Amino acid sequence: MSDNQVHKALEQRIMELEQALEKHKDAACWQTSLLDHQPANIVIQNRSHRIIWANQTACQSAGLSREKLIGSFCYEIWAQRSYECSDCPVTKAFETGKPQDLLRSTPDGRYWQIQGIPLPNGDGKITRALEVRKDVSERLKSEDMLRESEAKFRKMYESSQIGIAMVSLNFRILQANRAYCEMLGYSEHGLVGKTLKDITYPDDVPGNMEKQAKLGRGEIDSFQMEKRFIHKNGETVHGLLNANLIRDKDDKPWYFLGTVLDITERELMAAKLRQAHKMEAVGTLAGGIAHEFNNILGIILGNAELAAEDTARSNPAYGFLEEIIKASLRGKKVVTQILSFSRNSSKECNIVDIAKVVTETLGLLRASISADVEFRTDISDPDCFISGDATQIHQVLINLCTNAAHAMEDHGGILHIILENIVLYEKTSVLNHELLLGTYIRLTVSDTGHGILPEHSDRLFDPFFTTKGVGKGSGLGLSVVHGIITEHKGGIRIQSKPGQGTRAECFFPSAEDRLAIAYKYGC
C-alpha cells in the first residue's frame, strides 16, 4: 500500500470516528435533556456512591450546580452524613444486580421513594447505578385521604338503614348492603346474581322494568317510585326506590345504583288507618239508618200485633199478620246487630267470667251445630275475668263459632276454642291498631274448614260482606264482633289459608289492667 493510500484510509477512519462522536454527543445531549426534564432527582453514582452525573432536578434539589454536585458523595448531599446509609437501595442494587425500592421519611415530614437501578457496562459488570428520588408526599397524602374516604363510605354503606344495591346494565344485582339483604331475607351471597325481576312483585315488574330500561339507555339519569318486592319467604315488602345511573369516565352508562327505604310498616299502618276510617264512616251511616229503620219496624210491628189481636185465628188474614210479625222481629234483630256494629248500642260494664260465658255458649251451640263438627275446649286458666258486657261477649263467641261451623258444614271437622291469660311484653298488631303492653285474656276460635281466599281477607269485617249463599247470613257477623271487641278496648286478628282452616284471636284487657286502659282511652 502506497503512502497516498494509507493517508486516505486514515482520513476515512478519522471522519468515521468524528461522525460516531457526533452521534454519541447527540445521544448524550438527548438523554441529558430528557433526564433534565424529569420531576425526579436522578443521579448516576459509582460503587463508592460518588456522583458522576446528575440531572437538573437533582441539582436544584441540592442547591448546587452540576459541576459542584458531580464528585460529591450522595450520602453527604441527601442524608447530611459522612458515611453510607445502612438501608441504601443503591448498595443493594450493586449487591443483587436487581432494582431496589425504599420509602424514606425526612425530618421535615416529607416522604421520598428511592430507587436503585444497576447499570451494567458492555462487559456485563456493574460499576455504576442509577438513583432515582421522587417526592411522593402528596401522592401518599392523597392515598391516605382516599383510603379514609373509602373507609367512611364503607362504614356508611354497611351501617345504613337504607338498602343500597349496585345493579348491572342487564339488571343483575352486583352488590348489596346489609339493610338491602335483611329487607329481602337473603345473605349477600344469595342475593348477588339475581335479577330485578326475581325480587319484584309480579304486578310491579312492567312499570319498574320500563323505567329501568330508560335509565339504562341514558334517556333519564334517575327516577323514584314506590314498588313492591318479594321477600325470600314469599311475603310482600313495600319499598320507596331511588334509582340512579352511574356513568364511566367516557360518560357512558356503567351501572345502576339503587337505594330502597322499607316502607312496609308505613303501608300497613296506612291500610289500617283507611280501614278504621271506613269502618267508622260505615258504622255512623249504618247507625243512622238503623235508628230510622227501627222506627219504621216499630210502627209495622205494633200495628201488625194490634191487628192480630182483633183477628180470629181461623181468619186467613191471621197467617199473613203472623208472617209480618215474624219478619218485623227478624228485622229488629238485624237492626240490633247494626247498632252493635256501629257502637251505638248500650253496654253494661261488669266483671265478666269469660270461662263461664264459654261454657254456657257451647251448651247452646252443640244442639244447633252439625254432629260432624267436633268441639274441643282448652281453658288453661279458669280465672279469666274482664270488665265488659257478658251478653256481648256471648254474641262474639256465637258469631265466631257459627262462622267456623259453616266453614266445615260439608265435610265436618274440629272447632277448637282456647281461653288463656297472656302478657304482652311488646306492642301487638291487630285489626286497625296496636294493643298496649299488659295482661290480656285471649279467646281463640279455630276450625279445620275450607279457609279464606286471599282476595276476601281485606273485606272480612266489611258490613254486609259474606261468602255464604243467599239466606245463610247477613254479612254482619264479623262486623258486629269487631265493633264489640273494639268497644271493650281489645283487638282481633284472623289468620287463614285456603284449605287450611281459620284462626280468630280475640284480645280483651284483663280486669286487673282495665283501669289502665280506661285511663288512656276512656270507658
Describe what this molecule looks like in 3D:
By secondary structure, the chain is an alpha+beta fold. It has 4 domains: 103 residues, Beta-Lactamase; 103 residues, Beta-Lactamase; 69 residues; 172 residues, Heat Shock Protein 90. The longest helix is centred in the middle third of the chain and has 46 residues. It has a 5-stranded antiparallel β-sheet. A 5-stranded antiparallel β-sheet has the order 7-6-10-9-8, with helices on both faces. Helices cover 45% and strands 25% of the residues. It is rod-shaped. The chain contains 17 helices and 19 strands.
Which range does the strand content fall in?
25-35%
Task: Supply the helix-strand structural class.
Answer: alpha+beta
The CATH architecture designation of the largest domain is 2-Layer Sandwich
By DSSP, the count of extended strands is 19
- Helices, by number, come to 17
Give the low-pLDDT segments: 469-475, 519-523
Tally of discrete structural domains: 4
Give me the CATH superfamily of the largest domain.
Histidine kinase-like ATPase, C-terminal domain
Largest sheet features = 5 strands, antiparallel
State the CATH topology of the largest domain. Answer: Heat Shock Protein 90
- C-alpha geometry: rod-shaped
Q: Bin the helical content.
A: 40-55%
- Tell me the Rg in angstroms: 46 Å
In whole angstroms, how far apart are the ends?
139 Å
CATH hierarchy, class of the largest domain: Alpha Beta
Mean pLDDT: 81
**Neighbour order of strands in the largest sheet:** 2-1-5-4-3
Characteristic key phrases:
Beta-Lactamase, 17 helices, 523 residues, alpha+beta, 4 domains, five-stranded antiparallel sheet, single chain, disordered C terminus
